[in-house]
Write a structure and sequence with these properties.
Length: about 350
């Protein structure tokens, strides 16, 4: 089944349908799950259903033709508010939430959602990149979450509840989105004309961890090739952290377009390492390994020589997650790469 063309999340659709039929739709949600699996698309389709002028919202079947549906598609609906982290910023800017210094609480999402709806009975706000609130930004949302305006729906989109302040988590209904099935990722790559060759689409889907975004990243042949180099280096005993750091730094430096693009490449590489240690933990626990060829080969190679238990592999995974946090705090990139790989080598040596 698909809902409004969205694949793989029928259980979440039913969750919302039941809540609407009972008249018990919450006012604040935290959509949580891996990047690139359709959380934002789902949020937009939910907004279209709630704002449609001709269909009952509990049907979750917007007409797609009324003024409201057309405006949601165009991103111009006055009762649909969207906020996302700019590419060149580490956090969601405060002014997007409460206005700039000259217009505090007279502009921004927290002000706009408090206004009466223009076209109907609801306002819907979608905050993408909710993993990237700083403390001040998260605190700005608390009053809105504690006293939501009547008929408003606020959707935060992130990858993990652990990345939100407890005060945010406790005021939102958590909605978990699962990774997409390999078959779904492969079909989407072809049907959306992102990849022409079905065989290549299948290969990318097997390596994607259920994420369309990850599959598209791996469509970059250079990135996919360096991924194998990194995985092989991590599987060596002991890992040669100096050689790996030089190789990673050189690969990152090839991106000359912007600091944000280099930061994204580091994020991708740390993500590959996290994927390696996550699967290593599974292997150490005797769990079956997935289909991903290069990753599974590296993990199996590491399993033959791994001198520790799964707790050390978990420490390595945690170090990767810390590396992402340091990256978000604008740590010096060269130092971050060297320290991250040196720490992994010490833990796994």
């Amino acid at each position: 089944m698909t809902w409004q063309g969205i694949r793989g999340h029928d259980d979440v659709v039913e969750q919302f349908r039941r809540a609407l039929e009972r008249g018990r739709l919450a006012s604040s949600f935290l959509f949580s799950g891996p990047a690139g699996i359709g959380k934002r698309s789902f949020a937009l389709e939910l907004a279209r259903s709630l704002l449609c002028q001709t269909r009952a919202e509990e049907a979750l079947d917007p007409c797609g033709k009324c003024a409201a549906c057309v405006q949601v598609s165009a991103g111009t609906h006055p009762d649909l508010l969207e906020v996302a982290k700019p590419d060149d910023r580490a956090f969601i800017p405060l002014e997007l939430l409460i206005g700039d210094k000259d217009h505090r609480m007279r502009e921004g999402l927290c002000h706009d959602i408090s206004l009466r709806p223009f076209m109907g009975g609801r306002k819907v706000a979608i905050v993408d990149d909710a993993d990237h609130f700083n403390l001040e930004g998260a605190n700005c949302l608390l009053k809105t979450l504690e006293e939501p305006p009547p008929g408003s729906v606020l959707i935060l989109i992130g990858t993990s509840p652990a990345k939100q302040l407890p005060t945010i988590r406790s005021r939102c209904q958590l909605v978990r989105f699962r990774p997409l099935a390999t078959e779904v990722v492969a079909e989407l790559l072809v049907s959306k004309q992102l990849i022409d060759d079905p065989a290549e689409a299948r290969l990318l889907a097997e390596q994607s961890e259920g994420s369309l975004q990850r599959a598209l990243e791996l469509a970059d042949a250079e990135l996919r090739s360096f991924r194998e180099t990194l995985l092989k280096g991590l599987a060596d005993r002991p890992p040669d952290s100096v050689r790996l750091a030089r190789a990673v730094s050189a690969f990152v430096d090839e991106v000359r377009s912007s600091a944000a693009a280099r930061r994204q490449r580091i994020r991708q590489l740390i993500g590959f390492a996290a994927q390696f240690y996550r699967l290593l933990i599974h292997g150490l626990n005797g769990s079956p390994l997935p289909e991903d060829g290069p990753l599974v080969q590296s993990v199996r190679h590491a399993l033959q020589r791994w001198p520790h238990d799964e707790l050390v592999a978990a420490d390595c995974l945690e170090r990767c997650l810390e590396g992402v946090e340091q990256l978000d705090r604008n740590a010096n990139q060269t130092t971050l790469i060297e320290c991250w790989l040196d720490d992994l080598a010490k833990l796994a040596g």
